[in-house]
C-alpha cells in the first residue's frame, strides 16, 4: 500500500487509484493493514472486528473524497451528495488517543475506548474537509503525470515541481520509457 500522498484522505483515495486500477482494500484484513499503515490505528492497538461493512464504508468514503478532490483539481464545483456525505462523517467524533506505558516504561499511543468504524471514518473525512478548505493545501494538490496513473498527492517538494505520485513507481517508469525512446531514436534506420 502507498502512503506518500501527503494526507491520509489522499492515501485512502490511492487505494484504488493505482495505475492498474486494482482494488487494494479487498477485505477486512486489507483494511486493517491500511488503517495501521496510515497511522489511524497505532500498531499496539488490537482491532477486534473489521468486517465487510467496514470495507464498504471506507470504499464509499474513498469514492466521495476522490470525487471532491478531482472536482477541485478540475476547477469544477463539488458533487453535492459527496460533499454532504463527507461533511456528515466529518462531524462525528474522531477516535480518542491515550498515552500509555509500554513494557520498557516508554509512552506510546493507543486508541481510548477501542477501535470504532465511525470514529475512523470521521478522522479521514475530517482530514478531507481540512484539505479541501485550506487554500494553501489545495494549491499543492496535483495529479500524477505517469502514464495511466490517476493518483493525487500534495506537492510539497522544493519548488513544487514534483510530477509523479512516486518517483520509485511512476517516475521510474517514465525515465525507463524516455531512455527506450532515446535508444530507439538513435538506432540507424
UniProtKB/TrEMBL annotation:
Which superkingdom, per the lineage? Answer: Bacteria
Using the record for this protein, list the coiled-coil segments as residue ranges, or answer none.
Answer: none
Q: Which Pfam families match?
A: ABATE (PF07336), zf-CGNR (PF11706)
Q: Where is the Zinc finger CGNR domain?
A: 141-182
The record's section on PANTHER family has:
BLL6575 PROTEIN
Protein name per its UniProtKB record: ABATE domain-containing protein
Amino acid at each position: 500500500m502507498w502512503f506518500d500522498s501527503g494526507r491520509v484522505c489522499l492515501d485512502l483515495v490511492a487505494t484504488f487509484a493505482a495505475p492498474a486500477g486494482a482494488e487494494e482494500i479487498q477485505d477486512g484484513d486489507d483494511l486493517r493493514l491500511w488503517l495501521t499503515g496510515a497511522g489511524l490505528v497505532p500498531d499496539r492497538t488490537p482491532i477486534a472486528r473489521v468486517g465487510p461493512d467496514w470495507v464498504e464504508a471506507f470504499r464509499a468514503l474513498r469514492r466521495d473524497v476522490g470525487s471532491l478532490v478531482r472536482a477541485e483539481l478540475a476547477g469544477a464545483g463539488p458533487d453535492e451528495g459527496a460533499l454532504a456525505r463527507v461533511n456528515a462523517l466529518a462531524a462525528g467524533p474522531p477516535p480518542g488517543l491515550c498515552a500509555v506505558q509500554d513494557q520498557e516504561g516508554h509512552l506510546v499511543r493507543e486508541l481510548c475506548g477501542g477501535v470504532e468504524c465511525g470514529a475512523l471514518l470521521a478522522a479521514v473525512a475530517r482530514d478531507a474537509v481540512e484539505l479541501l478548505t485550506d487554500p494553501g493545501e489545495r494549491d499543492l494538490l496535483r495529479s500524477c503525470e505517469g502514464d495511466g496513473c490517476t493518483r493525487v498527492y500534495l506537492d510539497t517538494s522544493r519548488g513544487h515541481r514534483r510530477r509523479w505520485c512516486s518517483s520509485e513507481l511512476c517516475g521510474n517508469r517514465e525515465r525507463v520509457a524516455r531512455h527506450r525512446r532515446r535508444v530507439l531514436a538513435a538506432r540507424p534506420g
